[in-house]
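We examine the record.

___
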Amino acid sequence: MSTEIADLTTTRTIRNPVLTGFHPDPSILRVGDDYYLATSTFEWYPGVRLHHSKDLVHWRALGGIVTERRLLDLRGCGDSNGIWAPDLTWHGGLFHLVYSDVASFASGYWDAQNFLTTAPAITGPWSDPVRLHSHGFDAALFHDEDGTTWLLAMSADWRPGRNRFGGIEIQQYDPARRQLVGQARIIFSGTEAGLTEAPHLYRHDGWYWLVTAEGGTSWEHQVTVARSRELFGPYQVDPAGPLLTSVGRPDLTLQKAGHGSLVRTPGGDWYLAHLVGRPYTPLGNCVLGRETALQKVEWPTGDWPRIPGGIPADEIPAPDLPPHPWPDEPATDHFDTPELAACWSTLRRPATDDWVDLRSRRSHLRIHGGQSPMGRQTPSLVARRVGAVHCALETVVEFDPGDHRQLAGITGYYNTQNWHYLYLTRADDGRMVLELLSCDSGRRTAYPHLTVDTGGVARVGLRVSFDGPVLRFGYDLGDGWRQLPVELDSTILSDEHAAQIIDGEPAAWGFTGALLGLWVQDIGGDGRYADFDHATYREGRAPY
C-alpha cells in the first residue's frame, strides 16, 4: 500500500501544540476549505501572526497582518504591551480583524484602544483601521443571523476597590457607517473564577453561546461557556464547570489551558483552539511562552459542548479531511528574497528598507544599527521564535565597528529587561573583539574574562543554542566552532520570570516567549550596519 493511500485510510491525529513557541490567544476561523489561526504579537511586528491550514493537522506561517505603522505604531511600546488577543471573522465577503493596542497596564489603568480593519482576501489589502472604543481589551466581533454585527469586549474598571474585570460588554457596530452605535451593556459578569475576558459569541442549536477565558492567563486559566436564548442574556453558565482547564493537574504536559475559540468543519465536527504553556518543571518557567493547541469538542444536539475530561490532550483525532501537508520551512534562510521570510519578526518597528536591507548586497541581510538594548523607539532586532526545548540559531556576520558604541551579534531574547547577547565590537585599543553580556530583570552582567580577540577576521560565525534550562553561545573565526565556556540560564527568558508584582500591582507582565535574534546597535548614531550572510535554525539536540 502506498504511503499516500495509507495516509487516507489510517486514522490521523493532531499533535499539540499545533503552533509551538510564542503564539498565544488564538482566534480560529474557517472560510470555505481554509482554516486560519491569528495570534497575539504584543511589541513585535508584523502584528497579528497568521497561520493557514487545510486539514487542521498541518499549518504554515503566512507572516503577519499588521505590517505598517498605518495600522499600528509601536514606537515606545512597553514590554508585553501592544497587540493583545486579535479576533478574525468573515462576513459580507470581507475578512474582519479586530485587535487591541494596549498602551499601559500600570496602576489598574489598561489604556487599550481597539481597532478594526477589513480585507477582501486574507493577504489584503487591509483597510485603514477604524478606531472602536477603549472600554477594555480582547475585543471581538459577532455577526448575527439577522445581519447585525456586534462588538464584544472585556469591560475594564480602573476604580480602586472595584473588580478590574467588570464583565463582558456588547455594543452594536454599523458596517455602513463604520462606527459603533447605541449603548454598550454588560451581558455577563463571569463566575467565581474571576478575571473574565476574551469573549467569543456563537449562534448554534437555537442558543447564543458565550465562550470566555477566566482565572488569569497562567496556571488558573480556564475556558468558560455560558448560553442564552437572547442576545443580551441572561447567560447561564455550564453547570458542569469549565469546558477546558489544566487547574489541579500539574502532571499534564499542557498547562495554562484557556483563552479559546471554536471552529466547525464542513462535516460538522467542532474544535477548540486555545493557548497552553509547557513548563520545563512542574509549574515552572515556560521558556517557549504561550503556545496554540487544538481540542476535539463533542457537541450533541440540545446539550452543552464537551471536551473529554475537560483537560488538554497532547494528541487528538483529526477531522475527516483530505491530508494537506505543506513544504517544510528551509533550515537556512539565505536572504535571497526582497522581504523577510514569514518566520522573522522585528521589534517595535516594521521591517522597512531604512534599517532592514535585503537589496543592497545580494544574499545578505543588512541591519542598520539602532538604539541600545533598552531602547523602545528604534531598536534593530530581527528575531524568530524559540519553537523547541532544544534548538539553535547560527549565522555569519560581517561588521566593522568604529568603537564601543557599535555592536552586532546574536541573542537569546525575551524583552528589554531579560536577554543574553554575544556581540562584536571595538575595544579601546582598536582590536575587534567578541564580548558577552547578560541582562536579568534589568541588571546587566558582563563577562570580561570571556572576551575573544577576533584577530581581524572579516567573517565571524555566531551561534546561540537552547538546551532546556541552559543557553550557550559559540563562535567560528574560520578555523572551526568553539563554545564559550559558560552556561547561561535560559529560564530568565520566560513569562514567569518577566512578570513582576509590586504592592499587589503589576509592574511588569510576561506575555510573549523566548526568541533567537540578530541584533545591531549604533548607540552613537554614526550610521554603522552589519551584514548577515545567512541564518540557520535547527531543532533537536546537537553537539553545541
Remarks:
- Confidence is low (pLDDT under 50) at residues 1-9.
